[in-house]
Specification:
The chain has about 180 residues and is an alpha+beta fold. It is about 65% helix and about 15% strand. Helix 2 (about 10-40) runs antiparallel to helix 3. The longest helix has about 30 residues, at about 10-40.
Length: about 180
């Protein structure tokens, strides 16, 4: 009975193994590349894990799509399902476009952001100018520590829209060394 099953579905089993193997290789390679880029750029480990999670979810969705073709689904059937799902998601995403904008900005900032955790920056915003130290960079926002000790969360999408000046590189390290020197006196 098992032999007959494998004989009947031999082509699908081989194609499934190929899809899984290909996605594993692409996933491992992409995750290693993200980790290498993140380490080389001095990016926070939490942000590296977040980007790797995005890649894994994307590859999982691609794998499900490819597997449905392997198992005999027709393009028309999948197109109907995806158009219905995307119509619903599109309406929902319109309602939460700001969140998606911040996530997309977070991905862009992962690969191309000249500032890192610990840098003191000045954001040139007409309504709310900020000069603070970057304490954390997350998927949706930056955590900025003001000189008076207050914590400000600043949306990622605004970071890409506003002019930003680097005031001091590695300001946290220099602040700690000043504090250590003050304790010694």
């Amino acid at each position: 009975m098992i032999a007959r099953f494998f004989e009947s579905y031999q082509t699908q089993i081989i194609q499934t193994a190929f899809v899984i193997g290909l996605l594993l290789i692409v996933g491992i390679t992409t995750n290693a590349l993200i980790k290498k880029i993140g380490s080389k750029s001095g990016i926070n480990d939490a942000r590296i894990r977040l980007m790797r999670r995005y890649v894994t979810v994307s590859l999982l969705i691609i794998g499900v799509l490819l597997q449905s073709f392997v198992l005999g689904a027709k393009f028309h059937d999948i197109a109907v399902i995806f158009s219905s799902v995307f119509a619903i998601i599109g309406i929902a995403l319109f309602a939460i476009w700001s969140i998606l904008s911040n996530i997309t900005s977070g991905i862009i900032m992962f690969f191309n952001f000249p500032y890192k955790v610990g840098d003191k920056i000045s954001i040139h915003d007409k309504d709310f100018p900020v000069t603070a130290i970057i304490e954390d960079i997350q998927a949706f926002q930056l955590h900025l520590r003001l000189e008076n000790g207050d914590l400000v969360t600043y949306p990622n999408n605004l970071m890409l829209q506003k002019a930003v000046t680097l005031v001091e590189k590695d300001a946290i390290e220099s602040k700690h060394s000043e504090d250590d020197g003050a304790d010694a006196v």
